[in-house]
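tool_log.txt
---
The assistant was asked to compare two proteins side by side. It first ran the structure predictor on the initial sequence, then on the second. Raw inputs and outputs are pasted verbatim so the downstream comparison step can read them without reformatting.
(1)
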Amino acid sequence: MKFPTPNQSHFRHGLKTAGAAVAAYAVTELLNLPQGYWAVVSVIVVMQTNLGGSLRAGVNRIIGTALGAAMGALALGLMGTHPLALGLEMGLCILVCAYFIHLHESFRMAGMTAAIVILMGNQGHSIAWVAFARFFEITVGVCVALFFTAFVWPSRAGRQLRAGVVRALHDEAALYSILLSCRRGQDCDPGEEAAAIAQLEKTRERNHLLLEEAKREPAGLAVREQITVSLFNFTERIAEHLLSMEHAVHHDELEELHDFVARDMDLLAQTTITAMTRLALAIGADRHPGPVEDVVRAIGEAEDALSRLRMERVLPGYTLEVVMRFFSYYYNMREVAVELTSMAGRAALLGEK
């Protein structure tokens, strides 16, 4: 198992979470809340690495707490506090929340809150008081967490998405290099290829989440963050083209046809991989990516090679399936390069803002 390398952002997030937890505990002491530890628990649950993520977690926790407190109080009022009734109440509340969790993730918290209210209501307290106390304590924790997220070392999801774009480009360059080796038949390791695809999908999933969190942030997307979103969209299209290439690269019957244009196509692939890495470094360093004429030239030479292939009437000697797979591979290969050149032009705007 590979453990992540600690960095400054991890340290700051840990300090911020610890500070918020202590602050929440101090508030509950000042307000003399009997079960104030629920506020501390809420801080730990809600604190995310960016404001959008904390808002999402905080809203879900408040909604879930309100639903669960109401459900628990209603169940106690209707069915009473007999031990058998309590078991039935908890089972029914959790069943309802589990059934509706596909509608909204706040139902996950609702089931836990309902169970707490039902159990606490059996200790001689007013049902309404128990339900309100749980809701208030958890709301205190959520508010403290959001305050610390917004004002103590604040971090926006839109800025984190830019780092995600850089990771996506590096992952795509790594996968492209493996696909090129597999096409050449050189040291093609299926395990390495599968790992590269899994890593890329993990990065894409994380970036999608960051995008959703960025959209939730109160200030909206700044101009630079809007540019970052467009860069994210480029990486998504590039990833789809690479995955389409992966489906075609492992057919042995294509190798002979590949050989007719191998020099020009391999040049396009190598140039594109180099440009991917170069663009990732430029975006990460917040500087102009520079020209990509080498990629444009490589695209032109690859198109000329395909034109010669058609003019020399090589294709009629192959089956329709082989020809279709061949052009599918090179179409996606070309589109990766085209998307990258457009992405570089868009990334240049970051250096102007």
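(2)
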Amino acid sequence: MAKKRPQTKGSRPQPHGAGGEVPVVGAREACPCGSGRRYKACHGRAAAHAVTELVQRPFEGLPGECDWVALRELVPAATVELALKGGLPEGVPSVTLATVLPMAWPALRRDDGSVLLGLQNDTPSGDISRDLADTLQRALVAEPGTPVEGRRAPSGAPRLQDLLAADGPFAPVVHSGFEFWVPDAENATPEVAASLERANSAAIPTVKLAGVDAAYWCETPEKNHLRWVMPHEEEHLLDALARLHAAGTSSLGEGTRLVGSFRAHGLTVPVWDLPSEVGAEEIEKPAAEFAERLAAALAVTEPLTPEERRARGGLTNRQVTLS
């Protein structure tokens, strides 16, 4: 075993950066604080921890948290108009959240000054909200007609919760394709048209249900699915689902089956298999009826029965973590 570094009681070297901050240098370089140790073994430890520390629920506190998760993980093509605290800056007619942007750009400032913010990009830190907020702030001041590159958000930078209006609406519009990328898709250049065709061919047909919150029907070659992002605390929700499953009331009708759930950004996403002939409209009423059964099950406080515990174990075994 490696020996521990002895602790000294002497005064610690003071940072040289402005405001007491230690500037970032190469991992193997001497730490700027003057300790004589390499940066990675000194102040770089805290910096690395800050970068990699995962925020479990990055969209918590935002209007439509469940839909934020769905658009980040489940929906191919969708847009949402965003409202900023204090209103839009001069020269920015609109800010739109988009699931994906062309070339996987983090953001785009269009020729007319409007801003598109991409949601499904990789982010360099463990706080998606802070990284997206940093990208949005830079997009608001970018030159019209230019994309915005990704970067690690500065420590302590604002998060989306600091920039977006807390009482603003969050109403996703699900699209059948990515024509929203360009103002005039019908007259796009051959290169842009080819890019759109490739993106559209890979998009799974998806529909947002109107009768319940954050539930999305999607079509696949073999069967259809309903994926429903729910705001309830995970353990409590799994107990309620187990009660319904054990009672034989967890399905959405004949031929449907609750098959498991995803875990994404701190929320749970139950998933049902649906027959290929069951479309989004046909599942609206069964989903609304299930929401009533679930509310009743969530209100039960008695311990699970042995049969319900077995049902819960089966659901937990079929849970997949997306983030």
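---
observation on (2): The first strand starts at residue 78 and ends at 81. The longest helix spans residues 280-298.
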